[in-house]
């Protein structure tokens, strides 16, 4: 059985009290998915939300031409599927396990919010935060070149998932170049060129599903 790390700061589970967490888990059922498994599917209508307790997932959607657009990367403590449960509308994205993940499936999430008004307000604040993040990314797509967008995403990954290593920060998240391309709104070829540019500057080192950042401040400057 996987260990359950502490939730990421700012994620849903990190904002709840011990009593609220106990109530949430009492109404939930623990589930586990293997790496690569589909946790939720875009277009499905379902009555359950998921509290992620271990592992990381990507939230994505597909264009009419079939191109995958990565909307977000979520880690321990994240709340997934809440919008569909509350609105009753089909899910707006597909959630895929980037590594083995665990979480609590909560069937009556709307009922939990009804009984916990403080949590409902917290969720509203989180939704506003997601909208602001979405607006920020749209501005990035219009204002930054591909290398700037790639640098921005690498900085985010380093700050959220980075692990100290000799002389740098290792991003341990198993994210492929195709997935990084889907997250930056660029082609795989353009992302490959951007990564090569960042390597040539000595800012990063890349390998199969890993990135080591040697100059995080320099990467931040390139991101801007």
UniProtKB/TrEMBL annotation:
InterPro entries: cNMP-bd_dom, cNMP-bd_dom_sf, Env_Response_Regulators, HTH_CRP, RmlC-like_jellyroll, WH-like_DNA-bd_sf, WH_DNA-bd_sf
Keywords: DNA-binding, Transcription, Transcription regulation
Residue intervals of the Cyclic nucleotide-binding domain: 12-102
Family matches, as CDD domains: CAP_ED
Source superkingdom: Bacteria
Domain HTH crp-type, residue spans: 144-217
Record-given protein name: Crp/Fnr family transcriptional regulator
Source organism per UniProt: Sphaerisporangium aureirubrum
Lineage: Bacteria, Bacillati, Actinomycetota, Actinomycetes, Streptosporangiales
């Amino acid at each position: 059985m996987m260990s359950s790390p502490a939730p990421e700061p700012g994620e849903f589970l990190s904002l709840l009290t011990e009593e609220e967490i106990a109530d949430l888990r009492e109404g939930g059922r623990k589930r586990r998915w293997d790496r690569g498994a589909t946790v939720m599917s875009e277009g499905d209508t379902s009555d359950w939300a998921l509290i992620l307790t271990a592992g990381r997932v990507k939230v994505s959607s597909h264009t009419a031409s079939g191109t995958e657009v990565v909307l977000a990367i979520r880690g321990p403590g994240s709340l997934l599927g809440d919008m569909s449960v509350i609105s009753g509308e089909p899910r707006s994205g597909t959630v895929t396990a980037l590594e083995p993940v665990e979480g609590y499936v909560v069937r009556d999430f709307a009922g939990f919010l009804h009984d916990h008004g403080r949590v409902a307000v917290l969720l509203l604040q989180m939704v506003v935060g997601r909208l602001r993040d979405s607006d920020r990314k749209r501005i990035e797509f219009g204002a930054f070149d591909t290398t700037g967008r790639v640098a921005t995403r690498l900085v985010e990954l380093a700050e959220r998932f980075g692990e100290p290593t000799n002389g740098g920060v290792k991003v341990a998240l198993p994210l492929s170049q195709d997935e990084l391309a889907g997250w930056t709104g660029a082609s795989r070829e353009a992302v490959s060129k951007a990564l090569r540019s960042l390597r040539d500057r000595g800012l990063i080192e890349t390998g199969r599903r890993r990135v080591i950042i040697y100059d995080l401040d320099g990467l931040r400057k390139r991101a801007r």
